[in-house]
Design brief:
The chain is 62% helix and 3% strand. The protein is mostly helical. Strands 1-4 form a two-stranded antiparallel ribbon. It has a two-stranded antiparallel ribbon with strand order 2-3. A hairpin with a 5-residue loop joins β2 and β3. α5 packs antiparallel against α13, α7 runs antiparallel to α8 and α8 packs parallel to α14. The termini are far apart.
Length: 634
């Protein structure tokens, strides 16, 4: 596929606008007092729609675009039903966790853990795990799209990584939260426009969307309602809905930092609901893209994966765009999607990482500095995390496998236990710091153990059947990087063709090769050992397993370490869950369900418009008295 001038123009516009946003917001803030509250929270005067779009953009990276359609292509649409649980979890969080954090006026979400458990160790546990998640996620987000650029345009992987990380660092460091949020809006617009352009043009190549659905349904790609309760299946209705419902995305640092930057609680709630709608819309579009790609290759009966026309699943989407959508602007649309998703995810993670390190670790030691110097420290932190994320991206080049699956697996390992720690604090008054810390650490270790076993034994390697009937003696374009040697191998692993290329647009005649065995003959591994069956639990259930383990272990440890004898936590640090979901019950019954906590009347309005004071964690009343944290006691 030739890269047209309009494609490069789109690429340049994305870079210029992104960097320009940083300079623009830095220029606008030049007359304001330079404070960490302004830099990290946008002075808590952000708009509802931009924040909602920014939350969406921080969750949906370019890696999602590369991997989601591949899941539809290789295993069908069953995975996508998980978006129902994910959307419900965002709405649930909007009316439970968001009011809790918003009233406390936190900058770092882990200030809540400190205030609730009165333990700097629980706060530090959450901070370290989240920093690890965001740094590795940023690295993979930088690496994934760089592979696509190499396939479509011969762009060196290292150069893509450097450009992406440099642009992100510039506008995030200069403009702070405001630049990140408004640039996210621009990137999200690019992503939606690019996805729609590719979807429309791909559908035209197949013939019509009804033809797409016909071919996909014929070959078993359309499946949503497999109600089999077996947890060792890779996907099912229950696995995906339950698994996606238990994720810490809805209470992650980037999410809460944005909702708390709004001027009222009502706006914060609406931003979460709007984000859920955007996630549903994006899911429908990516499912459609995956089905279009499958229908195209099913129609010509030549699966590039099975035919070994591409090295791995990460290259399927860019290979389709490169070889099948040779039109001006389509490659540019890919630029918009991947760069938009990458920059949004990485900038959000960098800004949030700086907020965590400053608020949870460094602030206590540098309280005497001026606001200008404090802001300078947070900018230096962004640069440091940007460099580390870039290093992770270069290291990711040595990791083989499906990038999307790698991201899902990694996030599931840590997000479940993290959600469990917050549930312990918000729902169970007798949960203490020992229980929270033990539950979080043990649940994280257990989830990591299952994931490692799953990676070793790979129990879910079965894919749906594809055809290579018409691949023989067909002209194909190999998206080969400069000076690489490729081997086409049959099922006996003996090379049939080898070649070197000095360019990216070599056209190669495929002949005398034996395709890999049909995917329907590759059965999932079967093990009789109970331990191996444990490793066979679907990776999409790992977050649910981690949450349950953390809560159960945390409650048991709390009960055995004097949890019932400790002072009741302040009502503003708890979620009155039963008052909200069982409001029809008599007060005498609900009083027992509250476990001794007496919630204030009209609590939802108590701090709706309390003016924020930087660094203060409020007790939910209309006074300015902050709740004591461990740092206050040092």
């Amino acid at each position: 596929m030739d890269t047209h001038g309009v494609d490069y123009a789109i690429f340049v516009v994305i870079l210029v606008v992104s960097i320009g946003m940083g300079f623009f917001h830095a220029w606008r803030a030049r007359k304001k007092k330079d404070t960490t509250n302004e830099f990290l929270m946008g002075d808590r005067k952000m708009g509802t729609v931009p924040v909602a779009v920014s939350i969406f953009a921080s969750v949906v990276s370019g890696t999602i675009f590369l991997g989601y359609p591949v899941e539809m292509y290789t295993r069908g649409t069953q995975f996508s039903i998980g978006v129902v649980g994910l959307a419900l979890s965002w709405v649930f969080s909007a009316f439970t966790f968001v009011p809790l954090f918003y009233r406390l006026r936190v900058i770092s979400v882990f200030e809540y853990l400190d205030a609730r458990f009165q333990s700097k160790y629980v706060r530090l546990y959450g901070s370290i795990i989240t920093l690890l998640i965001m740094t590795l996620h940023s690295g993979v987000a930088l690496y994934g799209p760089s592979v696509a650029f190499q396939v479509t345009n011969g762009f060196p992987v290292w150069l893509s990584i450097v450009i992406s990380s440099t642009v992100t660092l510039v506008y995030t460091t200069l403009g702070g939260m405001k630049a990140v949020v408004y640039t996210d809006v621009f990137h999200a617009s690019c992503m939606f426009a690019g996805i729609i352009a590719i979807l429309v043009q791909g559908t035209r190549e197949v013939g019509s969307f009804s033809r797409v659905l016909e071919l996909s349904d014929r070959d078993g790609r359309i499946q949503f309602f497999n109600f089999d309760p077996n947890p060792t299946l890779r996907t099912s209705f229950w696995i995906n809905v339950i698994g996606s419902s238990f994720t810490s995305f809805t209470i992650s640092q980037p999410t809460i930092q944005r909702t708390c930057s709004l001027s009222s609680l009502t706006k914060a709630k609406w931003s979460m609901v709007m984000n859920a709608v955007l996630i549903l819309l994006n899911n429908m579009l990516l499912v459609s893209v995956g089905l279009v790609i499958y229908a195209y290759y099913a129609n010509i009966e030549c699966d590039p994966l099975q035919a070994k026309l591409i090295a791995n699943q990460n290259q399927l989407v860019p290979y389709f765009i490169r070889n099948c959508l040779n039109y001006p602007g389509i490659s540019g649309a890919l630029f918009g999607i991947l760069f938009g998703g990458t920059l949004s995810t990485v900038s959000s993670n960098l800004n949030s990482s700086a907020a965590i390190v400053w608020q949870d670790i460094l602030k206590h030691f540098f309280e005497h500095l001026s606001e200008t110097r404090k802001t300078l420290i947070t900018k230096i932190l962004i640069i440091i995390f940007g460099i580390i994320s870039t290093a992770v991206a270069f290291a990711a080049r040595n990791v083989h496998g499906h990038v999307f699956q790698m991201v899902i697996t990694f996030l599931s390992t840590f997000s479940g236990p993290m959600l469990g720690v917050f549930l312990l604090g918000a729902l169970f008054p007798f949960a203490n710091s020992k229980g929270a810390l033990t539950g979080g650490v043990v649940a994280t270790g257990f989830s990591a153990w299952i994931v490692m076993g799953s990676l070793i034994y790979n129990p879910h390697d079965k894919t749906l059947p594809t055809s290579v009937e018409k691949c023989n003696a067909t002209n194909g374009t190999f998206p080969s990087p400069r000076n690489y040697t490729y081997f086409l191998r049959g099922h006996d692993e003996s090379p049939s063709i080898s070649f070197s290329t000095d360019g990216i647009n070599e056209s190669v005649l495929l002949m005398n090769w034996t395709p890999a065995p049909p995917s329907e003959n590759r059965e999932s591994k079967s093990y009789s050992s109970p331990l191996i069956r444990l490793y066979s639990i679907s990776v999409y259930l790992i977050s649910f397993v981690g949450t349950v383990n953390c809560v159960v272990i945390g409650l048991i440890v709390s009960l055995f370490t004097g949890g019932r004898r400790q002072l009741k936590p302040d009502a503003s640090l708890m979620i009155p869950l039963f008052d909200r979901i069982c409001c029809y019950l008599p007060d005498c019954i609900r009083r027992h369900l509250r476990c001794g906590i007496e919630y204030r009347e009209n609590e939802s309005a108590s701090t709706e418009n309390v003016p924020p004071k930087e660094g203060a964690v409020y007790d939910g009343s209309t006074t300015d008295k902050p709740i004591e944290t461990s740092n206050d006691r040092l």
